[in-house]
Amino acid sequence: MTRSLSLLGLTFVLAAAGPATAQPRQGPQSYISPEVKDKTVTFRLRAPKAEKVGLSSSDIPGGGQGSRAMKKGEGDLWELTLDVSPGTYRYRIEVDGVPVVDPRNPSTSESFGNTWSLVRVPGAAFMDTADVPHGAVARVIYHSKTTGGNRRAHVYTPPGYETATEKYPVLYLLHGAGDCDDSWTSVGRSADILDNLIAAKMAVPMIVVMPAGHDSKFAGFGRPTGNTTPAALFEDDFAKDLRPHIEKTYRVKTGRADRAIAGLSMGGGQTLSVFLANPNDYSAVGVFSSGIFAGRTPEDWERWEKANKEKLTAVVAAKDGLKVFWLATGKEDFLLDTTKKTVALFEKHKLKPEFQETEGGHTWICWQRYLNEFVPKLFQ
Question: Which residues form the signal peptide (predicted)?
Answer without folding.
Answer: 1-22
